[in-house]
Known about the structure:
Number of domains: 1
Protein name: Anti-sigma F factor antagonist
Keywords: Phosphoprotein, Sporulation
Pfam families: STAS (PF01740)
Largest sheet: 5 strands, mixed
InterPro entries: Anti-sigma_ant, Anti-sigma_F_ant, STAS_dom, STAS_dom_sf
Shape: globular
Family: Belongs to the anti-sigma-factor antagonist family.
Amino acid sequence: MQVKFTNRGSTLVIGIIGELDHHSAEYIRDKIDAQMIKSTTKNIVFDFSKVGFMDSSGIGVIVGRYKNISKLKGKAAIVNPNAQIKKILEMAGIPKIIPLFNTVDDAVSSM
């Protein structure tokens, strides 16, 4: 499991590679929080194109970062989750607060 960061203006693109589950959630959360402190991030985009599996711990990571960025008047988006992850996101009601996009470019443009 890896996390890669790309800055697109004031938007931090968070590329997660591997699984986002209870084994990796704390590590991913800590990496994202540290990167958000270091950068001038106003918005965040979670790129799920290389995530094969996510459990409820992943929801916690997403919602926690969403709350943090919302306090700064920023926005969040999720890109390209697979069918299983999209179903989990929908069951948790995430698309009601964080929009889903097919591409990073679309997500960044919406910010």
